[in-house]
Structure formats: C-alpha cells, structure tokens
Design goal:
Number of domains: 2
Number of strands: 40
CATH superfamily of the largest domain: Hexapeptide repeat proteins
Structural class: alpha/beta
Largest sheet: 12 strands, mixed
Distance between the termini: 84 Å
Strand order of the largest sheet: 8-11-14-17-20-25-28-31-34-37-39-40
CATH topology of the largest domain: UDP N-Acetylglucosamine Acyltransferase, domain 1
Helix content: 10-25%
C-alpha cells in the first residue's frame, strides 16, 4: 500500500496541517511510529508520543491543540478513533484473503445451493439443503450441518461447527472453533433423582454484520429461535444459552455468559466475565461492568450496572467503600464492647 497524505485526508474527509505530498506505506501505533507510517491520537494519555514519534502523519481530532513542537504532518478529523478505524478497514480490503475455489478433500451435498465466488477450505463439510451466498469464505475443517443458510460475503474461520437449521446473515464473521446451534442446557429432574433431556427443537438466527469470537458457543432454542440481531459484536469465550435474544449493536466481552430466555436490549455494553441469569430483561443502552452478576430485570434505559448482585454502579461503588472500612469498624466495636464490660 502506498498513499499520499492528501489521499488519506480525502478518504477520511479530513484537513491537513503540514506537507500533503508525503507518502505513507504502513499503519503503526503512535509510540512505535516510523517514517512512512500513519498513526492516530485519540486518547490524550498518549499525547506525549506525538512529540517524539517518527510517523509521517498522525490523525487527530480537529479540536486537539498541541502543547509542544512536533515533526509529523497532522490530519484533522471529527473523530480520530473512528477515522483510523475507517483507514484500517480500507487497508484490510487491500491485504484481505482473496482465495476462491473449492479445495480437496471437502464435501458439498448435491442438494445444497452454493453461490458464486465461494472459497471452501480443505476438510470442510456442507450438508443437505444448505444455502451458501456469494463470496462466502469457509475455511479449513468447518462443519456446516443440514439446512443451514449463510448470507453473502460472510467469513467462517477454521474449526467452526454450525448445527442444522441455523440462519446466518450477510457480512458476518465467525472466528475459529465457535459452535453455533448446539443443544441448550435443558434437563428435567425426575422423582428418582435422575434428569431427562428436554429436546431442543429450535434454531439460531444471526442477522447481518455480526461478529462472533473464537470458542464462543450459541445454543439453539428449545422452541423458536435464539436470536442475535444486526451489528452485534461478541468476543471470544462467550456462552449464549437457548432462546436468548441480543439486541442490535450490542457488544459482549470475553468470558461472559447469558442464561436461557434472557432478552438483552439494543446498544448495550457487557464487559468481561459478566454473568446474567435466565428469564430477565436488560433494557437498551445498559452498560454492565466487568465481573458483575445480573440477577434481576431492570427497566430504566442507559443505566450503568456493577457488582454481584448487580445494582446501579454508583450504589455498588459506595458499598465498596463501606466494605473496605469493615475491619476498622469491627475494631472500634470490639473496643467499645470491652469498655462497656469494664
């Protein structure tokens, strides 16, 4: 890749402060910038590196005011983080894997419909009655069971297992070893202490532009569908149980688990290691901080929840202050008891 600073600025709808004719050939972190690279500064915690970086160009917010001299050409944009994301996406298109064709050995059932431009890696399997869209990339050792639908331009990375009747929309990305559509955890206790398996007869529906991380599992519904709405981003090692619904543009970080039949709203942010019980509702724009345990429904949109059991984050942080003082309070109480006995 080789672009001039002017070309990058045009791509990002930015303004240039410096030499627009300079050329860049790579992307880099601002603290590791070299001549010929373009970096960005969005978090002012890294501002110090602007004055020492060797990056040819640095993308910054229009509102940013440097405090010292610098040597890089600046590209001024509305939002540096978003602008650099656009640049990364364009770079990804250049270096993307453009593989096409069907490697052998692999298997495609005769009853399945395969779109143009598909790539199917070796040792992959496509079952009966599947519909695979145009320009889909299915990497090595992927298993796609019967009657699965995958929309155009989706990417399925090595080792993914997709159970029968799963629907996957367009432009989705499913990373290595994810399992989509395995049985929900349904067992009915019996009088003799044993458990009888409850058949899981539903499926998983994943809408357009969803990203699913490595080793994540999404269970099929008992009846109906487990549903992941448009634009959802799910990290690695996340468990989503049967009949869960995740609202559009919600993001879920690693090692979180959502129990059965819970409904998560739109534009929520769920941090790492969060546990959410079943059969509750989390409203739109909720933020759940790391390692929280959500044990009940909430109604108010836009809340920040923390702790276990989760409550409004301000209340949780206030309680933590009291907990840290318990040892001192215990000592004071013991002293008062001794004086009273005397």
């Amino acid at each position: 890749m080789e672009f001039t600073v002017e070309q990058i600025a045009q791509m990002l709808n930015g303004e240039i402060k410096g030499d627009k004719s300079l050329k860049v050939t790579q992307l880099s972190k601002i603290e590791e910038g070299k001549e010929g690279s373009v970096s960005f500064l969005a978090n002012l915690k890294y501002e110090q590196f602007l004055y020492t970086t060797n990056s040819t160009a640095v993308i910054v917010d229009k509102t940013f005011e440097p405090k010292k001299d610098y040597s890089s050409t600046l590209i001024l944009v509305e939002n540096a983080y978003s602008a650099f994301t656009i640049l990364l996406q364009e770079y990804q298109k250049i270096v993307a894997d453009h593989k096409k064709g069907i490697e052998q050995p692999s298997f495609i059932a005769e009853t399945s419909d395969i779109g143009e431009g598909i790539y199917l890696g070796a040792f992959s399997y496509i079952g009966e009655g599947c519909s695979i869209g145009k320009n889909v990339k299915i990497h090595q050792n992927v298993t796609i069971s019967d009657h699965v639908s995958i929309g155009d331009c989706s990417v399925i990375y090595p080792g993914v297992k997709i159970y029968k009747n799963t629907f996957i929309g367009e432009n989705c990305v499913i990373h290595a070893n994810a399992v989509i559509g395995s049985d929900g955890f349904g067992f009915a206790p019996q009088a003799d202490g044993s458990y009888k398996t409850i058949p899981q007869l539903g499926n998983v529906v994943i809408e357009d532009n969803v990203s699913i991380g490595a080793n994540t599992t999404i269970d099929c519904a008992t009846m109906g569908s487990t549903t992941i709405r448009k634009g959802v981003k799910i990290d690695n090692l996340v468990q989503i149980a049967h009949n869960v619904e995740i609202g559009q543009n919600t993001v879920i970080a690693a090692q979180s688990g959502i129990s059965g039949s819970t409904k998560i709203g739109e534009n929520c942010m769920i941090a790492g290691q969060v546990g959410i019980v079943g059969h509750i509702t989390v409203p739109n724009k909720t933020i759940i901080t790391a390692q929280s345990g959500v044990s009940k429904s909430f109604k108010k949109e836009g809340m920040i929840l923390g702790g276990s059991p989760a409550s409004e984050n301000k209340e949780y942080l206030r309680s933590q202050v009291y907990i840290k003082q318990l040892n001192k309070l215990d000592e004071r109480l013991s002293t008062l008891e001794n004086k009273f006995q005397e």
